[in-house]
Amino acid sequence: MNQSNNINVLWPTFIGEFYNPDHENIKDNLLNYFNGYMKNNLSNRSGENYNLYESKYDLHTEGNKDFEKLIKFMANSFLAMSSEVNKKEVKKLNNPNFKVTILDSWFTNYKKGGHDLPHAHGNCSWCCVYYVQIGKDANSANGGTYFQKPTPLRTQSDFGSLYNKSLILSAKPQEGKLIIWPNYLMHGSHPYEGEKNRIVVSANALVSLSKNNEI
Asked: Model-level pTM?
C-alpha cells in the first residue's frame, strides 16, 4: 500500500490586513464627523478602559456618507476574508451569493496614554479595527492592537515547540489599514504616547449564505 505522509493544520487563527485606497479622500471628513459627534454626545462608553472616548455602536445607521464609504470597504474586506478562509467550502457551491451584515460600528478617540484592556466580542463572526488617525511615531508597541494566543500556555522551549512560543501578536498601526480577526480572539490596544489622538473605527459583522446555496 502506497500512502503519502500528510500534516493537517487544524483550527488556525486567521488575522487579515486590508488597506483602503480611498483613505486620504475620506479621512478629514471622518474626523470632522467624529468631532461633531463628540460635541453633541458628551457622554460615552469608555467603561473600564483608560483615557478615551467611545461612541455608541450604531454609527452605520446614522447616514454619514463618508462613514458609509468606510463601511462598504469593511464589508468587502469581511467578505474577502470569509471567502479565503472558507475557500474549500466555496468551491462546493455554484455561484454563491453572500450577505455581509454589520451588527455594530463605532469610533474610539484615544487621548495620550489611552488604551483598551483585553476583551473579546460576541454574537458575530468577524471583528475589525480601522486606523483613521495615528501619529508618525506609532509602532506595534506604541498604539498598536495586540492579540492574545487562544491556545493554552506551553512552557516547553525546545525546537519542536517554537511554533507555540509567542503569547501575543502586536500589529503595526497604519492609517488606512484594516485588521480583521475572529470574534473569540482576545485583544486590546497598547497605550499611544504620541501627540496626536489615536482615532480608530471598529465593527462586528456576520457573513451569511443565501438560502439558495447550501454547503
From this structure: 0.92
Q: How far apart are CA 191 and CA 4, in angstroms?
A: 49
- How would you label 111-150 residue by residue, b for 16+ Cβ within 10 Å and e otherwise? eeebbbeeeebeebbbbbbbbbbbbeebeeebbbbbbebe
Cα–Cα distances (Å) from 63 to 59, 68, 95, 207, in that order, read 8, 7, 31, 22
Q: Distance (Å, rounded) from C-alpha 92 to C-alpha 90?
A: 5
Q: What does the chain look like in DSSP terms, one character per residue?
A: ----------S----EEEE-TTHHHHHHHHHHHHHHHHHH------TTSEEEEE--SBGGGS--HHHHHHHHHHHHHHHHHHHHHTHHHHTTSSS--EEEEEEEEEEEEEEEEEE--SB---SSSEEEEEEEE--TT-BTTBS-EEEE-SSPP----SGGGGGG--SEEEEPP-TTEEEEEETT--EEE----SSSPEEEEEEEEEEEE-TT---
Q: What is the pLDDT of residues 47-78, one digit of tens each?
A: 667 889 999 999 999 999 999 999 999 999 99
Instruction: State how far the Cα of 132 lies from the Cα of 199, in Å rounded to an integer.
Output: 6
* Residue 87 burial (CB count, 10 A): 9
